[in-house]
């Protein structure tokens, strides 16, 4: 300020002497330091003079003064907060003149005749607590009205979420997204359709692919270095069964058996027989047996002696009749 | 698109702290160094950290890909600034060409705003000063500043350095100050057009006759010579944007509020020159046929005139 010819910025507690320059810098460091300290003391005294003459209030820790605003302008560290653009509902409400109404935290619930909270656990007039719904003439026969109501609610919630997302996108475009919300892009890339999105490989897929890659190596993946936690391959080992070169005593003709099996399979496939003789014979025999049993039961008097038909309740026992 | 919301209230509070506000938080400082540092520079950085204890973050790892003055070398700095929410940084490095190099920089919206590169010479650390321990300034107290020298106004680099130093050591901008809490001062003297001497002193208040105490300076802290090597000023548009202050309520003209009448305004109508106004031909007194004939005559007349 004037008089002391220093520029004092009280808001920053700063003093600046624009009129000082060194004609010759003092030769020794000590002298220089002392000179600076002297000048500094003068200026600090000037600041203190104006600082202590400000109106002060007494507080617990000492005298407190109210500082004026700083005069030297310094840049901000972040941009000024931008005002939020009105949401779709807010625009509509403004146009129609709808004003917000204050809602009470507790509402009278008719059903239980008590005061219950408006939102949250055990709320008043809950949609899900209605036990009986009157059937209307517009209701179809097979439709479950309760399920219909809950489906409608789900639709409403989904629609609400969508509108919320739209409003936030609008705010983000204007640069006024609320600080605690982030909009994250889900997997859809900038160009292309959903087909072009590289699908994230699942754990099983990765394991199977690793196995396949391993078997394509010369040693079938047996000596590959495994990462910690990697499971050993599932189908390790031989897939072909080779017969022993020399047949021992008790083995028999394995080769003959093997070739016979293959031949039978081939022949049965290519045979044009409609009738399988063996199967037909067994079927006939079984039928005959059943018929005989029935006849025997129907006329029990065939045997000479009048014996009571002892029916055993055990399923396993069968009385063999001649 | 998915909406991501913090799951805990604590996370929400932290995010809100870092949001842009009308009245901002204290500027935090990030102190880090490059691949090569000297002993002097190490102590400079640690002492800087001690001076700004409450709102400074010090990294101890070497950062080889940070070159503040090059276009590609700033990305790491901006990333760290964003992660730690620091808008000031001090980057130290040492090379043969630039020994004991200290780059002081500021960010705006986590992008580099401006830079000043200084060389540190004649550094004296806090330990080398002997003083009465009772005078030691408390951490977080608001310092006084004394800038001596006309070069701070005339030379561009020193003007910039003055602003940067003020921003660095200013601390919180407060409305009310406790007078017993003033106990430190930064004295910066311009030695030449490129060098300044920065000293940090404690204040001793002595009794004097009047209510204003007598000030005495006792050197406590680091003292160093700063030689300005390079500097980068912010671009015009960035400067304008960063210096914007919150809007003062715009004065609405022509609106007065009266207790009885309510909100009133005046309507100003331009002067109607009644004499020059043309009379209309739609004279209600005449019978319809005559009226219409008169109107058609006029319109026919206008038509022929325009042709």
Automatic annotation (TrEMBL), chain A:
Give the UniProt subcellular location, in the record's own words.
Nucleus
What Pfam families does the annotation carry? RRS1
Q: Per the record, where are the segments of Basic and acidic residues compositional bias?
A: 119-139, 146-169, 193-206, 222-233, 286-299
Q: Which GO terms describe its biological process?
A: endonucleolytic cleavage in ITS1 to separate SSU-rRNA from 5.8S rRNA and LSU-rRNA from tricistronic rRNA transcript (SSU-rRNA, 5.8S rRNA, LSU-rRNA); ribosomal large subunit biogenesis
Write out the ranges of the annotated region (Disordered).
Answer: 58-257, 282-322
The record's section on InterPro entries has: Ribosom_reg
Basic residues bias located where? 96-105, 304-322
Task: Could you list this entry's UniProt keywords, alphabetically sorted.
Answer: Nucleus, Ribosome biogenesis
The record's family statement is: Belongs to the RRS1 family.
**UniProt cross-references to PANTHER family, sorted A to Z:** RIBOSOME BIOGENESIS REGULATORY PROTEIN, RIBOSOME BIOGENESIS REGULATORY PROTEIN HOMOLOG
Q: What is the protein name given in its UniProt record?
A: Ribosome biogenesis regulatory protein
UniProtKB/TrEMBL annotation, chain B:
Name where it's found: Nucleus, Nucleolus
Q: Which stretches does the entry tag as region Disordered? A: 271-307
What are the alphabetically sorted keywords of the record? Nucleus
- Its GO CC terms? nucleolus
The record's GO molecular-function terms, alphabetically, read: rRNA binding
Please name the GO terms of the biological process aspect recorded for this protein, alphabetically.
maturation of LSU-rRNA from tricistronic rRNA transcript (SSU-rRNA, 5.8S rRNA, LSU-rRNA); ribosomal large subunit assembly
Instruction: Pinpoint the Brix domain residues.
Output: 27-237
* Superkingdom to which the source organism belongs: Eukaryota
Q: Where along the chain is composition biased (Basic and acidic residues)?
A: 289-307
Tell me which stretches of the chain form a coiled coil.
Answer: none
Q: Which family does it belong to?
A: Belongs to the RPF2 family.
What name appears for this protein in its UniProt entry? Ribosome production factor 2 homolog
């Amino acid at each position: 300020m004037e008089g002391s010819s220093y520029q004092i910025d009280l808001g920053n507690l700063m003093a600046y002497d624009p009129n000082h320059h060194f004609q010759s810098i003092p030769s020794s460091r000590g002298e220089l330091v002392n000179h600076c300290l002297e000048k500094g003391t003068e200026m600090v005294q000037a600041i203190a003079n104006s600082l202590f003459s400000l109106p002060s209030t007494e507080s617990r820790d000492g005298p407190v003064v109210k500082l004026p605003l700083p005069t030297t302008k310094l840049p901000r560290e972040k941009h000024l907060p931008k005002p939020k653009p009105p949401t779709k509902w807010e625009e509509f409400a403004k146009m129609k003149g709808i004003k917000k109404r204050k809602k009470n935290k507790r509402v009278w619930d008719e059903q239980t005749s008590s005061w219950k909270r408006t939102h949250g656990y055990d709320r008043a007039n809950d949609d899900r607590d209605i036990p009986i719904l009157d059937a209307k003439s517009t209701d179809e026969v097979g439709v479950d009205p309760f399920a219909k109501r809950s489906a409608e609610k789900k639709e409403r919630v989904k629609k609400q979420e969508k509108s919320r997302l739209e409003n936030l996108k609008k705010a983000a475009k204007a640069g006024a997204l609320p600080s605690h919300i982030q909009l994250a892009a889900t997997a859809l890339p900038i160009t292309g359709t959903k087909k072009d999105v590289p699908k994230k490989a699942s754990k099983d897929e990765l394991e199977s692919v690793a196995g396949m890659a391993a078997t394509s190596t010369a040693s079938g993946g047996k000596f590959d270095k495994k990462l910690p936690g990697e499971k050993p391959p599932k189908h390790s080992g031989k897939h072909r069964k080779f017969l022993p070169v020399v047949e021992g005593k008790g083995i028999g003709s394995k080769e003959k058996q093997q070739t016979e099996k293959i031949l039978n399979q081939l022949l049965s496939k290519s045979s044009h027989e409609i009738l399988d003789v063996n199967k037909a014979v067994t079927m006939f025999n079984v039928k005959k047996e059943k018929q005989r049993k029935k006849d025997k039961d129907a006329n029990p008097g065939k045997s000479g002696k009048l014996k009571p038909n002892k029916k055993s309740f055990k399923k396993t026992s069968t009385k063999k009749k001649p | 698109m998915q909406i991501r919301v913090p799951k805990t209230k604590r996370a929400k509070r932290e995010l809100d702290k870092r949001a842009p506000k009308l009245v901002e938080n204290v500027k935090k400082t990030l102190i880090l160094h490059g691949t090569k540092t000297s002993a002097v520079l190490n102590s400079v950085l640690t002492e800087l950290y001690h001076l700004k204890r409450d709102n400074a973050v010090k990294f101890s790892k070497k950062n080889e890909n940070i070159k503040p003055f090059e276009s590609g070398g700033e990305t790491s700095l901006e990333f760290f600034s964003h992660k730690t929410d620091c808008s000031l940084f001090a980057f130290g490095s040492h090379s043969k060409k630039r020994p004991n190099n200290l780059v002081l920089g500021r960010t705006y919206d986590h992008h580099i705003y401006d830079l000043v590169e200084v060389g540190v010479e004649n550094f004296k650390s806090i330990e080398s000063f002997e003083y009465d321990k009772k005078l030691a300034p408390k951490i977080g107290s608001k310092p006084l500043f004394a800038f001596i020298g006309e070069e701070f106004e005339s030379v561009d680099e020193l003007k910039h350095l003055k602003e940067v130093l003020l921003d660095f050591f200013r601390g919180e901008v407060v409305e009310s100050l406790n007078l017993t809490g003033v106990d430190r001062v930064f004295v910066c003297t311009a030695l030449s057009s490129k060098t300044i001497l920065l000293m940090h002193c404690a204040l001793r208040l002595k009794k004097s006759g009047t209510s204003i105490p007598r000030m005495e300076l006792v050197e406590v802290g680091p003292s160093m010579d700063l030689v300005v090597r390079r500097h980068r000023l912010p671009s015009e548009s960035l400067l304008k944007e960063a210096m914007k202050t919150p809007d003062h309520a715009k004065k609405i003209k022509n609106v007065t509020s009266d207790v009885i009448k309510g909100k009133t305004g005046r309507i100003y109508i331009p002067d109607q020159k009644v004499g020059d106004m043309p009379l209309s031909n739609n004279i209600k007194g005449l019978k319809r046929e005559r009226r219409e004939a008169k109107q058609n005559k006029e319109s026919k007349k206008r038509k022929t005139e325009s042709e």
